[in-house]
Amino acid sequence: MGNLLDGKKILVMGVANKRSIAWGCASQLEKQGATVIYTYQNERMKKSVKRLVDDENLLIECDVATDESMDKAFTEIKERFGKLDGIVHAIAYANKEELDGDVQNTSREGYAVAQNISSYSLLAVARYGKEILNDPASIVTLTYFGSERAIPNYNVMGVAKAALEANVRYLARDMGQYGVRVNAISAGAVKTLAVTGVKDHSSLLSESESRTVDGNSVTTTEIGGACAFLMSDLATGVVGDTIYVDKGVHLI
Ligand code: NAD
Q1: Gap between the Cα atoms of 232 and 236, Å rounded
Q2: pLDDT at residue 204, as a whole number
Q3: Which of 47, 203, 231, 248 could form a disulfide with 86 if both were Cys (CB 3.0 to 4.6 A apart)?
Q4: Residue span of the structural domain in which 71 resides
């Protein structure tokens, strides 16, 4: 039996370190035979990504906050790697002071930052990606249950995740004609760099763990497994959906 993703080239955006969900995805994609190309946010991130990825040629800088950086990155990806079969978007950011207390205190600027990096960036990725994606191809983003329920301190990020999930549905409609499927994975809480920005994140993590069906948090390997499935030709019928990979937290 061959691997699920033999011959596929997939771009993974959002590895910060070995705890990153993006790294769990990349590892599973590689395990299934894909060649993985990585974008990192800035020089600081490059250092930690280099500790995980031996081949520096597979690393490209991309700050999704600006069109200039995205333009440069996707031009470089096209030149170096040609067509791709998939993109994993595992990127989110909000200013730390917005992930604390009452949501009505969210600043106008903080709201815009969270939306820009965590939600709008998926539209931009799809727009740039369209030029270099094969038909068929798959885009997968990462969301969280805080889009649907008011989770303490998650606040502006929950609002951004709700927008991200709406982006998935609209993109799925408009990218379908190019053979690109777009889906989201709603992952359970895992201790990553991003989560430590949420005030009292240890309560969020322990509360989440206590609500899983077996009392154990989902792992980034399990999330990566679902990502590999969504990238594969086994998932050609899954379009515009949000799939929970949270060990049942959303239903308990
Ligand atoms: P992480 O900190 O490992 O990854 C977040 C990544 O976003 C980092 O690599 C960071 O460099 C990148 N990023 C932030 N701003 C950027 C910018 N301007 N340009 C380019 N990259 C930028 O944390 P993670 O938890 O693995 O987060 C990955 C995704 O998973 C996020 O969308 C997050 O919301 C989502 N998610 C996380 C959890 C969780 O509990 N950790 C649960 C569900 C969904």
Answers
A1: 8
A2: 94
A3: 231
A4: 9-247
Domain count, the chain: 1
Identified catalytic residue from 128, 144, 170, 244: 144
164 is in an annotated binding site: no
Is the C-beta atom of 197 inside 6 A of ligand 1? Answer: no
CB-based burial, 54-63: b 16+ in 10 Å, e otherwise = eeeebbbebb
Residue 161 among known ligand-binding residues: yes
Residue 226 falls within a domain, yes or no? yes
Is beta strand 84-89 parallel, antiparallel or unpaired with respect to 59-61? Answer: unpaired
* 81-111 pLDDT tens trace: 999 999 999 999 999 999 999 999 999 999 9
Active site residue 154: yes
Helix (H, G, I), strand (E, B) or coil at 10: strand
Q: Choose one of 17, 19, 21 to mutate for the ligand 1 pocket test, by most ligand atoms within 8 angstroms of C-beta.
A: 21
Q: Considering the entire predicted model, what is its pTM? A: 0.98
Indicate whether residue 139 lines ligand 1 (CB < 6 A): no
Q: Rounded to an integer, what distance in angstroms lies between the CA atom of residue 185 and that of residue 165?
A: 10
Taking the CA of residue 161 as reference, the ligand 1 atom at the shortest distance is 34
Question: Residue 138 forms beta bridges with which residues?
Answer: 86, 181
Q: Decide if 88 is inside a domain.
A: yes
Question: Is 178 part of any domain?
Answer: yes
Answer whether residue 4 is part of any domain: no
CA distances from 29 to 5, 143, 189 (A): 7, 19, 21
Task: Name residues whose C-beta falls within 8 Å of residue 225's C-beta, 6 or more positions apart in sequence.
Answer: 28
